[in-house]
């Protein structure tokens, strides 16, 4: 049986603009050993080519076939739900590209969907327009519900905050397509051509990577190089199959391979 990996990026491979120690060797080793993998990121801002370029700056050389974003999952989901559908988008390049590629037309009035992603380019005026559209019947989709990092100087608000703003203004709950939603957890596995029993998730966040993996029946590895800390693990009703201080401490074959 082949075995492959879905790997979170922020807190696992890099932290902001800095490479996490040994992550470059870890990825090189996967390529050398021919182990199938894809980066699975909730950030819907970048296209996969932009992700490849960012990784390249951090001395990690991969191809677009190694990248799966919540923007890609959202585009595929909406394309399946409503072929030739329409959407009003609060988001940036990665999301716009993916919706377009999946046959969704971007419009400024009467959309079937309002789609929210990461970004700093949309205004409160656009948010208000989106609220009106949802109140008039548009379906509200958010690419993920990642919390604010709550650190000064961070590069974004955290999409949980912008989602909450629109939920409050409309009284409607967003449908989430990114991790831990099975929409993305499943389509990322299929993107890699793996079966459930062949899939292992590596991530730094219990609420997204690990919970998403556990719910899908994938194996999970929590790394402690990002958000999660060992002291708080007992607060969760689920646990990862393995814990490593960082990716360079993971050796192959994994014990369940
Ligand atoms: Mg992460």
At a glance:
By secondary structure, the protein is α/β, with parallel strands linked by helices. 33% of the residues lie in helices and 18% in strands.
Kindly describe this structure.
- With 257 residues, this protein is α/β, with parallel strands linked by helices.
- The chain has eight helices and 13 strands.
- The chain has helices at residues 23-32, 48-57, 70-81, 93-101, 124-135, 159-170, 182-191, 206-216, and strands spanning 4-7, 14-15, 18-19, 37-41, 67-69, 86-90, 105-106, 113-116, 139-142, 175-176, 199-203, 219-223, 242-244.
- Helix 3 runs parallel beside helix 4 (93-101).
- The longest helix is centred in the N-terminal third of the chain and has 12 residues, at 70-81.
Secondary structure blueprint with pairings:
Blueprint: E1 4-7, E2 14-15, E3 18-19, H1 23-32, E4 37-41, H2 48-57, E5 67-69, H3 70-81, E6 86-90, H4 93-101, E7 105-106, E8 113-116, H5 124-135, E9 139-142, H6 159-170, E10 175-176, H7 182-191, E11 199-203, H8 206-216, E12 219-223, E13 242-244
Parallel strand pairs: 1-4, 1-11, 4-5, 6-7, 6-8, 8-9, 9-10, 11-12, 12-13
Antiparallel strand pairs: 2-3
Helix pairs in contact: 3-4, 3-7
């Amino acid at each position: 049986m082949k075995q492959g990996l879905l790997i979170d990026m922020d807190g696992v491979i890099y932290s902001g603009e800095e490479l996490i120690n040994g992550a470059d060797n870890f990825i090189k080793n996967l390529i050398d050993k021919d182990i199938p993998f894809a980066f699975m990121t909730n950030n819907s801002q970048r296209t996969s080519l932009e992700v490849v370029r960012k990784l390249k700056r951090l001395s990690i050389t991969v191809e677009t076939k190694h990248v799966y974003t919540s923007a890609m999952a959202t585009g595929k989901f909406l394309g399946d739900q409503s072929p030739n559908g329409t959407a009003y988008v609060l988001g940036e390049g990665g999301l716009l590209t993916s919706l377009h590629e999946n046959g969704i037309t971007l419009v400024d009035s009467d959309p079937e969907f309002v789609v929210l992603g990461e970004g700093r380019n949309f205004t409160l005026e656009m948010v208000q327009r989106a609220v009106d559209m949802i109140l008039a019947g548009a379906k509200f989709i958010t690419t993920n519900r990642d919390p604010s990092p709550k650190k000064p100087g961070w590069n974004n608000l955290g999409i949980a905050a912008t989602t909450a703003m629109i939920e409050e203004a409309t009284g409607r709950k967003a449908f989430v397509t990114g991790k831990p939603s099975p929409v993305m957890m499943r389509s990322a596995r299929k993107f890699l051509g793996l079966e459930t029993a062949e899939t292992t998730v590596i991530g730094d966040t219990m609420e997204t990577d690990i919970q998403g993996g556990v719910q899908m029946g994938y194996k999970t590895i929590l790394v402690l190089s990002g958000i999660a800390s060992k002291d708080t693990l007992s607060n969760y009703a689920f646990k990862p199959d393995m814990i490593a201080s960082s990716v360079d401490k993971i050796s192959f074959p994994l014990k369940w391979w």
